[in-house]
Amino acid sequence: MAKSAPQFACTACGNVTSKWSGRCDACGAWNTIHEERPLSSSGPAAKSLGKARGRAVALSDLGIDEPPPPRTSSGLSELDRVLGGGLVPGSAVLVGGDPGIGKSTLLLQAAAAFAGAGLKVIYASGEEASAQVRMRAQRLGLRDAQVQLAAETNLRDILTTLDAEKPELVIIDSIQTMWADNVDSAPGSVSQVRAAAHELTTFAKRRGCSVILVGHVTKEGQIAGPRVVEHMVDTVLYFEGERGHQFRILRAVKNRFGPADEIGVFEMTGAGLSQVGNPSALFLSERGTPAPGSAVFAGIEGTRPVLCEFQALVAPTPHSQPRRSVVGWDGGRLAMILAVLEARCGIPFTGLDVYLNVAGGMRITEPAADLAVAAALLSAREDSALPPETVVFGEISLSGALRPVAQAENRLKEAQKLGFTRAIVPAGGSARDTSGLTLTEMGDLASVVGSIFGA
Ligand code: TYD
Ligand code: MG
């Protein structure tokens, strides 16, 4: 390709191609490909060698007794947990999420918390003027927090400020508003977002200053999404939740310094986000008397057990093609469970619309929820509630067999703590200490159907 030939990049995944198309070959998104200038058209040829001499060090020469990186705890335990036990100096963190979900609120609270823990913090806002950030701080009761504000969008100005102020943590809200004047494309484009993230993370590594980048998830259009910079940072967190619900979940999807899949649970209130120490109690709080279609799943999110409720509705369809609608769970997995119920248990869902929802706006990804989904579907179809105070977990294989899942004991302990008395689980699991819980151990889905619904 000639040097001056145009380049095209996908704003959803960052994939670069030489020609435009309506759909991205890499991620399948529509209308996300836009023209971009190549990052450095006038720099030295890539094949020429740099002047500085590189150095390679034998792995065995590196100190093996080095202590783990010191971490700063913010005091917000839900945030610290998701970071893997606190913020690592010099690390780069990306916090992605839909616009309006509460990222700025979370990070202003985090900024104040880290400042309270003794860090020098700069909050650079490209989206709101200083006065607006101050108003938000007042609403959150953080007016006196020792956080420096910078309402800047020019990357060079921000780096100059950081160079002079030498903060220990800088928060960039948001990466899509940052603008590097040596890159020849509009703010928010793939090249701009990449360049800004690259400069900021390298600065962070060099100076031992941590950086938190905020990235809006964009459905389509000209603005590059947070996925474009995921590979440049140490930790990727997504802030998620349903607009109509007050619960917000901060989920680690990548973490070089801690377990991935860890979640922190918050509640959006009139005075900012408050931490939820016992998510199970919260997710189950809307549950009344056992109703048909409801099954409580004892799940594990990261290192912590979390109970939540699956709700199913099964109704005759007025359409030729029945509907399958899922919120908070994988649609493909639902189709698999419906197929197993039909093929292995002789329970068809043809001609029936199926709706499945996880209460409270929670999103479940564990296959261990298979059995809870199947139980909710069966209960809805039979219009008969599951036995009261019962939790369910287990993975279902295509043959209809139930597979034991990890951390059964932790799941059961949490269920017991919340007052559950029975559990339907796969046979052959490792859970032994279940005093106080009646275990119903099942080898396959057909016996679950038989024992609960007498079919
Ligand atoms: P915001 O943090 O601005 O979202 P983001 O930065 O992800 O775009 O939060 C926006 C929403 O949060 C807004 O609809 C108002 C609501 N909110 C509260 O409910 N309570 C509060 O204390 C604050 C500051 C915001
Ligand atoms: Mg914001």
Automatic annotation (TrEMBL):
A motif (RadA KNRFG motif) lies at residues 254-258. SMART domains: AAA. The keyword Hydrolase applies. Residues 353-455 are annotated as: Lon-protease-like. SUPFAM superfamilies: P-loop containing nucleoside triphosphate hydrolases, Ribosomal protein S5 domain 2-like. Keywords: ATP-binding, DNA damage, DNA repair, DNA-binding, Hydrolase, Metal-binding, Nucleotide-binding, Stress response, Zinc, Zinc-finger. Residues 68-217 form the RecA family profile domain. Pfam families: AAA_25, ChlI, Zn_ribbon_LapB. ATP binds at residues 97-104. InterPro entries: AAA+_ATPase, DNA_repair_RadA, P-loop_NTPase, RecA_ATP-bd, Ribosomal_Su5_D2-typ_SF, Ribsml_uS5_D2-typ_fold_subgr, Rubredoxin_2. NCBIfam families: sms (TIGR00416). Plays a role in repairing double-strand DNA breaks, probably involving stabilizing or processing branched DNA or blocked replication forks. Belongs to the RecA family. RadA subfamily. The middle region has homology to RecA with ATPase motifs including the RadA KNRFG motif, while the C-terminus is homologous to Lon protease. This is DNA repair protein RadA. It comes from Litorisediminicola beolgyonensis.
